[in-house]
Amino acid sequence: MLAQSDKKKLKSLKKEANALFEQGDYRTAIKLFTEIIESDNEDFEIVGKRGVCYMWTAKPKKAKTDLDLAIKHNPEASLYFSRFAIRPYTDVKGKVEDLDEAIKLDPTVARYHYERAYLKYEHVKSYVEEKEPGLKITRKEVEQKYSITLDNICEDFSKAAALNIEYAEKSSMFCTSFNNAFIESK
User: Fold this and answer.
1) What superfamily in CATH does domain 1-74 come from?
2) Residue 129 burial (10 A CB sphere; 0-12, 13-18, 19+)
3) Contact status, residue 164 vs residue 110, Cβ threshold 8 Å
4) 74-103 tens-digit pLDDT
């Protein structure tokens, strides 16, 4: 148990670390967050913030470790979105799962819907580009290749556009392109 003076110091350190985090001084914030975690390893909000700092300082393995731990103890939509961002491009299934969880926790964020739809769209597009020009494919082919379902791509694009008008034009264009890539509609 921390003494009263240690609690005061820890509170002051958290305030300083959070200010650095908000200012984008992620390297210095990491040092302070690490010091805080060494004193209080049960503050998973701080662990999550350090994970985000690692993400912004190009340390994806450390970011994922912290974000995994923070999500396990304190699931927040923004943490799932951060973990989505640091996953390798080829980890389609993991990226989709993180976005699914972020949307469950906060379905009002247009960017989560847009990113989930766009991620699937980009993989469909790259798969189609690997094929002979003009050759149409089936959804089942793509779903099997990436171990994801392609249902709701256009619904996600539409939801993003409904939540934030900035996504409207792109979402409509991508949805049309997506639907034209396949032989059958489902």
Assistant:
1) Tetratricopeptide repeat domain (1.25.40.10)
2) exposed
3) yes
4) 888 899 999 999 888 889 899 999 999 999
